[in-house]
Amino acid sequence: MKVEIDNFSQFRIYPSKGRLFVRGDSKVFRFSTSKNESLFLQRKNPRKISWTVPYRRLHRKGITEEIAKKRSRKTVKHQRGIVGADMASILAKRNQTSQARVAQRTAAIQKAKSEKKEKESKKTKAPRAPTTAPKVSKQAKGGKGR
Amino acid sequence: MIGLKGTLNVIDNSGALLVECVNVLKQKVNNGWGGVGDEIVCVVKRARPVSPAAQASSTAVKVRKGDVRRAVIVRTKKAVRRPDGRMIRFDDNAAVLLNNKRDMLGTRIGGVVSADLRMKGWGKIVSIAPKVI
């Protein structure tokens, strides 16, 4: 037993109910009542006839119950570590107190300053040798060039 | 419900286009209404023009306007009831021409035919038909 659907209103057609219409182009249409049949033959658009299923779907009538059921699903977020930083280090960083961070920052600054000083002292010693060397070569070159 | 003066489209390739019913051949009643699967006597009202070349060599019998032939009704606009309770109706009335011995005149059928033909004993027509509903 197959329950067909109406070609106009999409109602269900049970066996021995309704009519079947074969159009000139061999297309088959099923109607559950003469009301559907008449409107179909008048070439009415089911999407504009408010009691049909196409209209209700188009205007989203009576669907709110289905949507309300589905909303109870919520995705739960899981904390995961990444390749570079595993879970423990992430937690450690997050749970650092602000004091600890400040202390870290000042330590880093101190370190940078000391390093910079060392660099400068090295620089002042080092470039003296190379600056004298080119002077000598230039003088020599100048003498030859004349 | 085809009766006297009822017109039917011819859907085989016998050459006729439109036939008009003259008599419904049913056993008990001479007049009355013909439905799907009933034999009728009809007059060819409109036929396809027969070219002189086809006249000379006629492998397929060509029918001309004014011929009186027999036909079987294959489609009716009036709804027919199926055993499972469905009502089926077509968009027009159609027939297939026959000779006096219930053989088809044409060789091909173009269009849908009703499946009620099989129940009335026209299995040959049903087997040739492209679509049966």
TrEMBL record, chain A:
Alphabetically ordered keywords of this record: Ribonucleoprotein, Ribosomal protein
Pfam families: Ribosomal_L24e
Stretches for region Disordered: 93-146
Residue ranges, compositional bias (Basic and acidic residues): 112-123
GO MF entry, a single one: mRNA binding
Domain Large ribosomal subunit protein eL24-related N-terminal, chain residue ranges per copy: 1-66
Family to which this protein belongs: Belongs to the eukaryotic ribosomal protein eL24 family.
Name by which UniProt lists this protein: Ribosomal protein L24e-domain-containing protein
UniProtKB/TrEMBL annotation, chain B:
PROSITE patterns recorded: RIBOSOMAL_L14
Record keyword Ribonucleoprotein present: yes
Alphabetical UniProt keywords: Ribonucleoprotein, Ribosomal protein
GO MF: large ribosomal subunit rRNA binding; structural constituent of ribosome
Keyword ATP-binding carried by entry: no
An annotated GO BP: translation
Protein name: Large ribosomal subunit protein uL14m
Organism: Thelephora terrestris
